[in-house]
Amino acid sequence: MKRKTVLVACGTAVATSTVVAAAIEEAMQVRGIPVTLRQCKATELPSLIADADLVVSTTPVPDGLGKPVIKGLPFLTGIGKDAALDAIAAALTG
Amino acid sequence: MSREDRLADLLDDAALCPGLNAYDAADAIRQLAARLEWLGRVRPDYARAVIAREAAMPTGLPLGAINVAIPHTDPEHVIAPAVAVATLAVPVDFASMDDPDEKLPVRVVFLLALTDKIRQLATLRSVCALIQDAGRLGRIAAVSDQAGLRAALSGEMLTSEIQGGTS
Fold this sequence. Notes:
By secondary structure, chain A is an alpha/beta fold. Chain A has helices at 16-30, 45-48, 73-77, 81-93, and strands at 4-10, 35-41, 54-57, 69-71.
């Protein structure tokens, strides 16, 4: 399976995206989905989006990215986390 | 684990504020930031930077019964990593991280002063594990004194350290 790239965005790229990226990396490893995680600020998404397959963001993202965007909040609150992981897995393998 | 900061390492009693009286989110941030500045952990512009970031990219987390906010800002405003914690006597509104137009009445605030995402991953995971545990969060929100708040936070730390050690 081709290794996909996920951009994990938050406001500062030091706090919430760190937790979200670690959670996604572990969960995709368990599911056998090869993935590269990159953290960035939401404002940096337009300049980084070309090389990415998917965006997971804890904050609202700019319009018109042209790639699927999945909310990262469930990884912080725990509410809807499994559904978010299923959505990420589907987006990466579909 | 020596290169990772644990939540326990980053808490100082002087920055634990049970039953804080704040009239809004910025006031709560300012009061907690003042403690961290006094402790020498953040620069004088930290509070202003956190409040500005909160206005642009809010950090309120909708959890149901007890909402939490985790205000923070860029590492350039931080001298050394630290976490200040307040429980609010009366909830104040923070905007939701997910939807800045949504206001959440927040009872517990974790003010994060972070310098390095790798070193502080364990701390961030501890905070997340704690807010995902409704029972522990309820105990934290209910404490009335500093010792109680530290104990409530400590109960979580032991569990999260065990979890962190297996990952």
